Amino acid sequence: MRIGIIGGGITGLSCAYYLGRAGIEATVFDPTPGGTIGTVYHEGCVLENGPESWLAAKPWAEQLIKEVGMGDELTSSNDANRRTYVLRHGRFVTLPEGLQLVVPTKVLPIAATTLFTWGTKIRMGLEILRSPKALPDRSVSDFVRDHFGDEAVEYLAEPLLAGVYGGSPDELSAASVLPKFVEYEQKYGSVVVGALRTKIPKPAGGRGIFLTLKRGMGSLVEELKTRVNVLPLRVDGLAKGESGWGLRAEGEWHPFDQVVVACGANHAAGLVGPHDQRLGELLGMIPHSSSEIWTLGFRKEDVKRPLDAFGFLVPRKERGVIMSCTWLNTKWAGRVPDDKVVLRCFSTHQGVTREAVLQELGRLMGISAEPVFALHQRWNNAMPQYTVGHARRAEEIQERFDAIPGLHFAGNALNGVGIPDCIKSARQAAGGVVESIGT
Ligand SMILES: Cc1cc2nc3c(=O)[nH]c(=O)nc-3n(C[C@H](O)[C@H](O)[C@H](O)COP(=O)(O)OP(=O)(O)OC[C@H]3O[C@@H](n4cnc5c(N)ncnc54)[C@H](O)[C@@H]3O)c2cc1C
User: Fold this and answer.
1) Chosen CATH of 288-384 out of 3.40.30.10, 3.30.70.1490, 3.90.660.20, 1.10.10.60
2) Residue with CA closest to ligand 1 atom 26
3) What's the pTM?
4) What is the 3-state secondary structure (H, E, C) of 81-121?
5) CATH 3.50.50.60 matches 2-35+219-287+386-438
6) How many angstroms is it from 7 CA to the middle of ligand 1?
7) In testing the pocket of ligand 1, which one of 18, 212, 263 has its CB within 8 Å of the most ligand atoms?
8) What is the SS3 assignment for 73?
9) What is the pLDDT of residues 221-256, one digit of tens each?
10) Is 382 touching ligand 1 by the criterion CB < 6 Å?
C-alpha cells in the first residue's frame, strides 16, 4: 500500500508520520516542506518565521511531540507576566482580566478598565438577562455587537481575531470562529452566563496557556522530516487510475493507492476540481488572508519602555501599519539574550516597509534607535478565513471527499487553523486510510 501526500506543512508531515507508525509507506510532495513553520537562529535569538506557539488546551500537538521524543523541548509562555495591551486613543490599555476571548466574566476588571465606556460596561452587565435564541449563522461582528455593542467589536473582537486570522470579524462566521459562545447563546441566551457556568480547567502543572518548543517550532518539522519520505516537488496534476491515483510532479507521474491532499484549500481546489467540479468550487470559495511579519532586534538600552506585557494589539480604528506586536523577551524565556529586545510586528499591509514599522514603533513605544537586525517574512494567502456559512460549506467539502474512494483531505481549511487542529486532522486522515484498508 503506497500513499501520496500533497503538501508537507505540519499537516502533511504529521499525516506521513502517523501512516508510517501504522506500517503504511507514504511519500510527501512539497517544494518547501514545513509550510508556514520555520525557525531562524539569529544573533543568539530563536526567531519564528510563522507560528510561534499553540494553545496548550488542545492536546494533539503535545501528544505528537512527546511521541517523537521531543517532550523535553516543550516550554510554556511566561504567564506570570501575561498581559496584553490594546491601543485606545493612542495609549496602551490593559486587556481586562477575566475575559474568555470576547466574553467578560469578572465585574471589577470591567468596571475599572478604560478600554470601554460606561455604556458598554452597563451593556455587558445587562447581557445576562438575554433569553435563549437559535439564530442563523452571522458574522462575528454582528454576534458581538448584538451581545455587547459596537465598542466591544472595535476594541475586543476585531483586534483579537485579526491577530489570529488576519481577517475581518465583519466576514468571519460566529458559528465557526466562536462555536462555544454560539452554543451558550442557544442554551442560555447570555454568553456571559454560559461562560460563568463552564469551568475552564487551569493549565496542568502551573503551565502557561501557550506552548512552544525550546529550539523553535521549526525543530518539530526538522524532526518529522527525518522520519518520513519527502520529495521536494510541486504536484501539478492528480489523475484517477484503474486501481489508485497518480500524482504528476515535474512532468513525471507517480502512482499511489491513495492520496492525502494536505496543501491548503486554495491549492487543492485546482487539483481536485477536475474530479468533482463542485468540490473544486467549494474549496476555491474559502478566502485566504496574507500577512507580513517584521522581527526587529534592538539593543536593550535602546528600548526604554518597560516590557511588562506579552505585547499589544492595535484595533482597526486606530491602526497604522502594525496590527499586533509580540514582545518576545516577556512572553518566552530563553528566546532572546539579555542584552537584546526583540519585537515581532504583524501587519496586513502588503509591502509594509521596515521604515514604516519603525516609525510606528517610535510613535507607540518611543523607540528611536536603529534596530541591530530586521527580518522580514511575507505569507501570501496562507490563512483560511472561516466566513459566514463556513460550517455548511465545510460539511459539504468533507462529504464530497468522503464520496471519492482513495482521496483524503486534511489541514487548516475546515475545522480549525491552529497547529494542534492541523495535527488532529492529519491523524484523522491517516486513520481514514488505515480504516479503508481494513474494510
Ligand atoms: C503568519 C502565521 C502565523 C501563525 N501563527 C500561529 C500560531 O502562533 N499558533 C498556531 O497554532 N497556528 C498559527 N498559525 C496557523 C498555522 O500555522 C497553520 O494553520 C498551519 O501551520 C497550517 O499547516 P498546513 O500543513 O495545513 O499548511 P501549510 O503550512 O500552509 O503547508 C501547506 C504546504 O503545501 C505545500 N503545497 C501547496 N501546493 C502544493 C502542491 N501543488 N504540491 C506540493 N506541495 C504543495 C506548500 O508548499 C506548503 O508547504 C499561523 C499561520 C500563519 C500564516
Assistant:
1) 3.90.660.20
2) 411
3) 0.96
4) HCCEEEEECCEEEECCCCEECCEECCHHHHHHCCCCCHHHH
5) yes
6) 9
7) 263
8) helix
9) 999 999 999 999 999 999 999 889 999 999 999 999
10) yes
